[in-house]
Amino acid sequence: MRVQIRECVAPKDLDGLRRCVIELQDYERGLDASMPTGASVADRLLERMHSECEKNAGRIFVADCAGQVVGYCCVWGSFHSGDVEEAPRRYALVTDLVVLPEHRHNGTGAALIEAAECYARACGVRFIRVSVLGSNEAARGFYAARGFTAHEILLEKPLESSAGGACASARGARG
Fold it and tell me: Which residues pair with 74 in a beta bridge?
């Protein structure tokens, strides 16, 4: 079946969008068990997605297959992180992209990111960014194949809980 990329229409697309949000959250939870389940946060994530789209000239593009939402991409068309260390320039930010498993590997994801890029150009920005979990090799490969390169990499280290151990030693050494 043919997939059409179009802007999200609320409330018609809400159930399909919710299903996709749950899929994305649960997939990422499989990569990072500390994340909450999709069902437990889907409604709040959808509310925040719509709210942030209003603030940041955002759009939600859906992949529609026979009237069913089978994927989506959320892009903010005008964003600045507010980070004082960063050059003051606006860019587009892809906050989410997911395609339901049974519709993957047929160009749907590529069509969604292309819609986001076209929208970003129409907003007058010169750059588009996206973040992925470091362990999400599939997403990193998908974006790299479409010309995205690393801009900033956030590293994380789990800390062992210590009943005073190293922290107590450090305090003692200073004082």
Answer: 60, 96
